[in-house]
Amino acid sequence: MLNEKQKLDTLIVLGIEMNRIHDLDILLERLLARARQFVNADAGSIYIREGNRLNFAHSQNATLQKRLPPGEKLIYATFSLPIDQTSIAGYAAATGKMLSIPDLYKLSPTKRYHFSKKFDKASGYVSRSMLTIPLLSSKKDVLGILQIINAQDQEKRIRVFSRADEKVMLHFAGIAAVAMERAQMTRAMILRMIRMAEMRDPKETGAHVNRVAEFSLEIYEHWAKRRHVDQKQIDKTRDELRMGAMLHDVGKVAISDLILKKPGQLSIEEYEIIKQHTIQGARLFSNLQSDYDETAAIIALNHHEKWDGSGYPGHVDPVTGKPLPVYASRGPGPLPGKKGTEIPILGRIVAVADVYDALSSKRSYKEPWDESRSIEIISQGAGTHFDPELVEIFLKRLTAIRAIQDRYSETDIYPESDDR
Prior knowledge:
Blueprint: H1 4-19, H2 24-39, E1 41-50, E2 53-61, H3 62-66, E3 80-82, H4 88-95, E4 99-101, H5 118-123, E5 130-136, E6 142-152, E7 158-159, H6 163-200, H7 206-226, H8 231-246, H9 257-260, H10 268-284, H11 291-302, H12 345-360, H13 371-380, H14 388-396, H15 398-407
Antiparallel strand pairs: 1-2, 1-6, 2-3, 4-5, 5-6, 6-7
């Protein structure tokens, strides 16, 4: 539990820490964890504003987490709330005011807002004290809502949020909102690039790239923990991977519509042109300005390589499009693909995530395959198309994979709820 001096010292460096995180989802996860740490809260949630609604974006609960096996994460459903004065989060967003509630189960019936007990009944959890803080942009627009639940004393007993807690969380919310506004701008730019690709290739939807990115994070985190990778390095790579995976097929903007949208089977020559999207995608990030550019370039170039060496584009310089010097003397003809661990790990991870989503999603030319059939293809590809270890990890994470599919459906619509 942080003392007052530690809280002030942490606030000073918080902005620097948060501004190092570029991906919106990774940022929300870290913000919520830090907010809970500041006031020693057991649980919390973050909502993102979209129009006149609040979309439930992230949740944490230490008590429920302890009930899970090691390495498992809480699975939570997504929903949205209207921005009005009927729910606690909606009220805070509608009024721009912070709400501190000592006991949710003793909330006065005269209040315009109410607390739904549905989550508590379903999970066996008891929500008592709650602090709900609007996250305001520089123009004082509501970007989202931060809710932290069940403040605890040093003996882990539930307590009310103090005035000192409220004061420090208002400062925290200001810093968080700045980081969030910047991350939303970054996400918007990435989605614009993806919409450009979608205009050329209808398969590249926002839902598809979000699923591929989240599948990739799920695989990477468990791969890294098996190797005892330092948590700081895991966090850094997750941030880079989340954005790089979303942009894995952005190179398709350089491929002709006549090929991308061809209704029939591609000719050998047309397929060779399609393969160039890996090189074109990597080339977009070749003027390296940051680690994010490097990661995006690696993923774009390598996500169609195969474990057995039968993938593409092989050992090529993405800037020139020519074979690397050691392969330049081979003469005409396709280069051999990279093989095994020659393929960078992030390329191997995105390969599994991308193929699984393509199999299990509806496309203009096919209906979604059922889960068992999609899993069978991934399993059969272990050792030929895919890194066998990554397939093993993927299959062990199917519960989380299904939750990601539910969260990022093609309709991209959040179900309504009267929760909190």
